[in-house]
Design brief:
alpha/beta; Dihydrodipicolinate Reductase, domain 2; binds alpha-L-sorbopyranose; Rossmann fold; about 400 residues; 9-stranded mixed sheet; 11 helices; 6-stranded parallel sheet
Amino acid sequence: MELEEIGVAMIGTGFMGRVHVEALRRAGVRVVGICGSSPKKSRAAARQLGVEKSYDRFEQAIEDPEVNAVHIGTPNRHHCEMASRSLEAGKHVLCEKPLAMSSAESAALVELSRQYPNQATSVNYNIRFYPLCVEAQARIASQELGEVFHITGSYVQDWLLWPTDYNWRVLCEEGGDLRAIADIGTHWLDLVQSVTGLEVLEVMADLQTVHQVRERPIGEVETFQSGGQREKQSESIHVQTEDAGNILLRFNHGARGALNVSQVTAGRKNCLRFEIAGSHNSLSWNSESPNRLWIGHRDQPNQLLTRDPALMSPAAGRVADYPGGHNEGYADSFKHCFRAFYAYIANGDFEAPTTFPTFADGHREVMLCDAVLESHRCRKWVAVDGPAS
Ligand code: SOE
């Protein structure tokens, strides 16, 4: 199947709906229709984004013969059912993270996807596709760092800093028992495992709910929305999900790590940082200045590599579309993730190795979340269940 023949239905009209539609088009993939939580929202999104069809109901999207693939960008509680029904309807599926509300659900999705070997499935860990993250991966694979000793870092944001900040993600019924860890912590965990090739085996977690009561505006609130919503009428709600957490990590091959996650760190808008210390060099990267990779040396001056296809490995060059000095960032990482997914579908060899995060990776992240929650509750080290992906 040619890339231009592939049609996509986008489910979800919030922040992710907009980002996916734009990135799909930049990847050369046609968006056939969009579906929101009400016919009115579907119509409004189709109009704003210039999408041909608006679906009144999810069923219309998966029954549409023009649709080959479904993108799911809804609150987490819908992921499992929508992904299952899309697979059963014969569609390829790309789902937002976390893949499901529980590891029972994500395991069932992996199992179901095996019954449809000619349909591709992916979970959107887009950060893997920043060029300098691929560069870090290539340098580690070529042994430039030597043995990896430890991996530290954080993923911090401030959009839920105030008790008047609210979004569906704070409710466990909508997003799952874990919030900050599942929403952004799993991005970091997926990224460092993909960059280093190591796997997290055990975790020791301490979670923190800063605001046990939040003010929920009457009406709807978008991710990252602020300001106006505080003037709206609101009601107090009890919050059980965590605003922040610290996790000690044990990887295979003896590597150790530590991760700090927070959605209440003033001034950090959307900041993922990692530092990887190896026996020869270290590497450090920050998503808020994504076009620079710091390379640390013991016996010579440190280096700062600016993203430039001419100066990076071929693998990193493949996910950099612009010359050095022409910054690429967040939106481009989605484009490259989707490009990898649709190149695989267009190629039609569903036994070929995948170059994008799969449902198995998504399931592994949900199992990591289970271990984090158990560790926090029991105040002890917990092994991550099941085989690594
Ligand atoms: C909200 O925390 C959020 O939109 C995440 O859900 C995304 O995965 C991340 O890219 C930005 O922040």
